[in-house]
Amino acid sequence: MPIPWTMYQTETRWADQFVLVKSEPNQAKRVNSDTETVPLEEAVRIVRSIAHKTGTETIPVDEADGRTLSESIFAPDDIPGFDRATVNGYAIISSDTIDAQIRPINLTIVGSITKGLSKNHELSPGQAFSIQTGGKLPAGADSVILEEDSIVQGDVISIQHPVPPDVHIIRRDEDFKKGEPVYPAGWILRPQDIAVLVSIGRIRVKVRKKPIIGIISTGRELVPSESIPKSGEVREVNSYLVTAFCKRQGAIPVRYGIIRDDAEELTRLIEQASQECDAIIVSGGSSRDEHDITAQVIHKLGKVYTEGISFAPEKRTTIGQIDSVLVIGLPGHPSATFMVLTLVVIHLLQAMKGSPNQQVYRKYVRLTDTLHASKDSDRYIRVTITDDKATPVFGKSGLIHMLSQSDGIVKIPAGSKGYNVGDRVEVMIW
Amino acid sequence: MPIPWTMYQTETRWADQFVLVKSEPNQAKRVNSDTETVPLEEAVRIVRSIAHKTGTETIPVDEADGRTLSESIFAPDDIPGFDRATVNGYAIISSDTIDAQIRPINLTIVGSITKGLSKNHELSPGQAFSIQTGGKLPAGADSVILEEDSIVQGDVISIQHPVPPDVHIIRRDEDFKKGEPVYPAGWILRPQDIAVLVSIGRIRVKVRKKPIIGIISTGRELVPSESIPKSGEVREVNSYLVTAFCKRQGAIPVRYGIIRDDAEELTRLIEQASQECDAIIVSGGSSRDEHDITAQVIHKLGKVYTEGISFAPEKRTTIGQIDSVLVIGLPGHPSATFMVLTLVVIHLLQAMKGSPNQQVYRKYVRLTDTLHASKDSDRYIRVTITDDKATPVFGKSGLIHMLSQSDGIVKIPAGSKGYNVGDRVEVMIW
């Protein structure tokens, strides 16, 4: 019995959804106006439609946890490959026991089978084999009687009731039938999947390579985290945040350093990263203060799809492309950066890994406070969850501690009535 | 504003909960009878009360994602350390603007401040500084007027309404006050916490060492995964399953190989592992077929707390201890092994890492099928989740594909009425 493939989005089906997008390049148009923004859903669509899947590599199965299969897996043989007993008891021929409806039937115990490698025993009518859980059924046997239910005297077992076929056994192809599909390409492997792969003899698997993500931080006030900032300066934290986030999402982060608002230097670094990485994340340069340097540089080297996402409280996110390399410019505040990582960049990483079906955890809890809607933008409000209640966390987005103070976010759709105290809301857990 | 410590179980508070247990050693008594079992909650309690926390080590903060802090972290300085503007605009002295209630007030713009290292500007009454988001406020300034709201002619800004103090600024200690608690010991670090630590200059942190888990597989029918099994043999998969599970939970798995039901060899291996590891997991030897070899060996080398957990469908789990090393014997079927890993072993790993507050994801969904309760044992039924509905997955526990076919489990308490189609149930996500 295989995994029901239809229950999951396979790589192919996901790709289908984007045929439309890919054939209409104008849909992902350059947004010129400084104030023009796209809704979050559109930003995700753009990112998903531009992102290229990474190449493939073959790795040992015990290093494949969390990786995405780039091949479909089929059972190479019947598994377990022989009929097995699922209990301790006696292997019998069920048709021998039909007459037990009228009077007890006696069978002769002709031998004993432990599990593990065994001779090809054969059972003739009127005979039984004592057998251990996991043991290989003798040829001819089609059911096993539970040891506890058996009346045995010497080498004779007395059967009081007819036994139907297929009781307390696993058939040779009941786990997997030779050639049947086991996992579709695009499946993200979990520890339990590693076990399944090993059970069918797949000790190597073909998976998507981890995407390499170039990380650049910009900001005139930034100093390296190892420095002691002078008054007016702050430690650069975004590259650490993006690095840890990328690692956790199965990507390989590569730091390109800090640029202090120098467009030429940024151009040089982005150009270099676009030749060495699968995608580039620039943080800081998309805030208004940096005069949209990131967007300017991307525009010079490639194209810009949007310079903003219309959700509160963080709008400034640039999405562009240089050759085949996607470039995302994040806002400079770490707490805003984290929001965009969780809402947008995660889709980039999933699309590159070919993992469209990756789950986001959601929880339904009651609100402890009122949340008003904005007329024009979807609002995303951080919340902490305690005792299955969500409490909104408000604060200036420039404060770093906002980062550690929330468990997830609640979306308040633009133009809705908002939420009242006690309303049940959906929280997307970080 | 720090993390509200009281909202989280700190290491200390968790330890407190176990003072009672530790002072009553008889509570974790040896269970002699072959049929005597303990409820799951009791098994978890035993594991949590025996498990020792691992030692500590100091690591670079950028390698600390997922690790548990073994020190409490306090802010070494005020953060950001200087008063900052949160918008582009004009830094002013708010008391200068009180009279704007009656008539417009003019202030003279005496300079301009960009963010980054800056001179110690000073603002005298009647003056204003143009300032950039993130810029350091001049001494004396206590509010910032938004650029968009300002009426400027030459070097004169005209104020139409009084401006209260503390508008559009972050005070020097508003993110963190020197000495205030930032994270309690026992906190599990996430990417956003790495960013917070870097922001306060913590580029090294003291964390719990990863627990080293010895893994032994037993079973007469087992052959190494690299082999092609002969008829009657099956590939050993549990060590792969336990290895991947331990890695994902932040432990270091060490394989000790396969024992084909040889008590002496198992004794030797367990003895060796108990000297080299923080805990030992033996799979297979706790099924009835292996005649409780694992329990016998543990009993000989140390003590056995229980030989079974009273939940269906997997009862056979041995919990014992050799010196200070906890030994857990798991059932042999991979799908049963996985269930016990998720319900019991996870508590062992969390307790060793000093991470009591680690979250388990739960989801509330409606059932598509009836689930009957058992009179004596809690039942744990695997379910798949599609379109927010949970469908029970039934199957013989000897089948490996059960592993990959479910998203979580539902508990049906012993002696309850069970659940009907359409009932809302809590699913613990794997």
UniProtKB/TrEMBL annotation, chains A, B:
Q: Which biological process annotations from GO are given for this protein?
A: Mo-molybdopterin cofactor biosynthetic process
Sorted alphabetically, which keywords does the UniProt record give?
Molybdenum cofactor biosynthesis, Transferase
Q: What is this protein called?
A: Molybdopterin molybdenumtransferase MoeA
A GO term from the CC aspect: cytosol
Domain MoaB/Mog residues, every copy: 214-351
Pfam families, sorted: MoCF_biosynth (PF00994), MoeA_C (PF03454), MoeA_N (PF03453)
Recorded hits in NCBIfam families, A to Z, give:
Glp_gephyrin
Recorded GO terms, molecular function? molybdopterin molybdotransferase activity
Pathways per UniProt: Cofactor biosynthesis; molybdopterin biosynthesis
